[in-house]
Amino acid sequence: MAEKVEVKELEDVVVRFSGDSGDGMQLAGNIFSTVSATVGNGISTFPDYPADIRAPQGSLTGVSGYQVHIGEGKVYTPGDKCDVLVAMNAAALKTQYQYAKPQACIIIDTDSFGPVDLKKADFHSDDYLGEMGIDPDRVVACPITRMVKECLADESMPPKAVLKCRNMFALGLVCWLFNRDLTLVANFLKEKFAKKPGVAEANIKVVNAGYHYGANTHASVPSTYRIETKHKQPGRYMDITGNKATAYGLIAAAERAGLKLYLGSYPITPATDILHELAKHKSLGVITVQSEDEISACSSAVGASFAGALAVTSTSGPGICLKSEAINLAVIDELPLVVIDVQRGGPSTGLPTKSEQTDLLQVLYGRNGESPMPVIAATSPTDCFDAAYMAAKIALEHLTPVVLLTDAFIANGSSAWRLPDIKKMPPIHPHYVTPEQKYKYTPYQRDPKNQVRYWAIPGQEGYTHILGGLEKDGETGAISTEPENHNKMDHLRFQKVADIEVPDLEVEGDKDDADLLIVGFGSTYGHLYSAMTELRKKGYKVALAQFKYVNPLPKNTAEVLLKYRKVVVAEQNLGQLAALLRIRINDFVPFQYNQVKGQPFVVSELVKGFEKIIVTPEEQMTGPTFETRVLQ
Fold first, then answer.
1. Residue 62 near residue 23, CB atoms below 8 Å
2. Tens-place pLDDT, residues 488-506
3. Would you give the distance in Å from CA 203 to the centre of its chain?
4. Is position 310 within any domain?
5. CA 113/CA 121 separation, integer angstroms
């Protein structure tokens, strides 16, 4: 064994923690990512939960993973494959090794590789490394369970509580491997277990034991690693998930608009954390209601909007189906409402803990009648803050419900977030009634500049009015079934949304002379940007246009998309954005890259598919139907 382990400096590294769903892998990964963000590293995380509520211990279906990519600069994806894999049991090794690089370091708990464990994981012999073709020299085989028991032998803790600390031993090993400061880990644990100081101290003790195990044995690795942040932007940073960022964005919007924030919600994976986070902030005037079902949750938010609050309802795809009638009430009443859809795998119950982009056409068209609504798609965990803020701004200033699309990948994933100065955020001016309208007000009087109706809050003298689900006369506000009036109101509601000003579509990369333009929307930004970067390194001219505002589309959309000879629309569905763009833009016929695996894109696969489009003559790839333009 070497006397001293060499310390190598890396640009970036990917670590994946995996084990049973009760092994605390999400916590270990979260602590490691938070510590990394604290020292200024760029991070991107991907929690990969099992769909089972509680699968049998040691089973293949019960493995929970948490992947974190840390780098010296900005990090765009959680990484295709990991450099370090922590596998807390045999099932974790069996299912997660596919996500490891060929040269990856693998840390295992040898105490969880007994005959019963191997049988549950479908191994056929005791030589589990040989069965999987893993080089033993790359494996840090540590009796983690036994060492944790010895470490906490003097503590008066029940056996089950002791075993729950195993994740901290693995975390300590990883912290040693990457020269992380254990003081930061200890501070995190003390804060998390502030009401249970004994639990905090036990976990800190085990983290230190794991760290010192690596330091004292050199843990079978030739070197440890350091990732220094070379380009630091001054400011306060935190590791934030997309759901938490969404909650903070809504709070900031309510503060800026001078309104109370109301959330009517019903628990649903993976959106529930927005409800949990907002419920913590009553001191900021936030009101949260957990309703009995999705319909009542949305209906209560419509009522709160009528009463003058910044009203929000949060859900996932199945909940959007159920809320549609109440959302449509907000459309015809032209009330401000933010509808958050944290997309997950479908159809039906589908894949509750997995991620897709399959609700786009549902939120655009999944309601009866002509029912136009703005749609914004957040591009990263940190962008969820800005997207939520802008969704609220549009809703309040244009008196319309607005859909904010996120998904399980960015909602549960996290990034290093620089706390913004709220005073520098764009102002929000709700479109209230004017003093001149007093005693002359009817609910569908409109601002001639943008066709937005005026918002009167109940209780204001001189602004008495009625709203409801039946069509109203545009002049008097009385119920009307007059054909010409209905035609007029449908056109007004449509045009009001179509005229909302949104930022132009930006093009990155070789925007002037690209051989291929990559197009995506929402959460795929990091993967598509990384694919563009890799292709440019190969010498190809490639550009990227990522949609954040999907309805209305940016005014320059047609100009941008028709500029390039070859365009590929890449999305995690079977072609919904591509279909929308084909409808909206004459003569736009893109290639399509579609996957619905419930997992993020793999950058190397994107590069391979896009390279094929660049180097192959178009006539060899396409036929008379759009299906021939879908990459297989």
1. no
2. 999 999 999 999 999 999 9
3. 29
4. yes
5. 9
